[in-house]
Amino acid sequence: MRVGIGYDSHRFADRRKLILGGVTVPHLQGLAGHSDADVVAHALTDAVLGAAGLGDIGTMFPPTDPQWRDANSLELLKQAYLRVVEAGLNFVSADITVILERPRLAPFIDAMREKLAAALVTGTSTVSVKAKTNEGMGWIGRGEGVAVIAVALLDRRS
Fold first, then answer.
1. What is the rounded distance in angstroms from the CA atom of residue 81 to the CA atom of residue 52?
2. Does the predicted model carry a pTM greater than 0.90?
3. pLDDT for residue 57
4. Where are the alpha helices (DSSP H) in the chain?
5. How far apart are alpha carbons 136 and 117 in whole angstroms?
6. Residue-level pLDDT at 68
7. Structural contact between residues 78 and 86, judged by C-beta atoms closer than 8 angstroms
8. Bond into 62 cis (ω within 30)
9. Parallel, antiparallel, or unpaired: how do β-strands 127-132 and 19-20 relate?
């Protein structure tokens, strides 16, 4: 068994869609970033790559490379997972915590789980997504952005 932890954060930005876990969530602002800034997919990608010992999302898909501008982060997760499979590992499960004050994510959690699971060629029962607030504290509490922590479990293919 191999365990990886991923973390990512992005600040809110005007004139961007808010995409979390591959789902467009209605909100006045989106997230700043080189790609679509899907902080959920980014943290999960880092967790999966970390569990496989394959580095991180910034190394595999550098933000300085124009080919990744506005990239679909679910596609980046799929590409990263293909490398994990090539390394002889399988996805087992993931647990993801999204930390933000607004918007409320409860109506979108199941859709996020479905999209993330599809990118990892697995069932939704293996991908957990939870949303928490920061109780008004710090930059997240002031509504300046979103942070995500993800843990992924992989195992060797038999």
1. 9
2. yes
3. 93
4. 39-52, 57-60, 73-86, 109-119, 138-141
5. 31
6. 86
7. no
8. no
9. unpaired
DSSP annotation of 106: G
Rounded to whole angstroms, the Cα distance separating 122 from 104 reads 26
DSSP type of residue 62 = -
CA torsion sign for 146, 19, 127, 119 is negative
Estimate to the nearest angstrom the gap between the alpha carbon of 136 and the chain centroid: 23
Cα angle for residues 139, 144, 149 (degrees, 5° grid): 70
d(CA 104, CA 79): 30
pLDDT of residue 5: 98
Read off the tokens for 134.
């920061």
**pLDDT the model gives residue 112:** 98
**pLDDT attached to residue 56:** 95
For residue 140, what pLDDT is reported?
Answer: 97
Which residues of the chain fall short of a pLDDT of 70? 158
Q: Which residues have C-beta within 8 Å of that of residue 86, sequence separation ≥ 6? A: none
Domains of the chain and CATH, by start: 2-156 (3.30.1330.50)
Handedness of CA 43, 44, 46, 47 (dihedral sign): positive
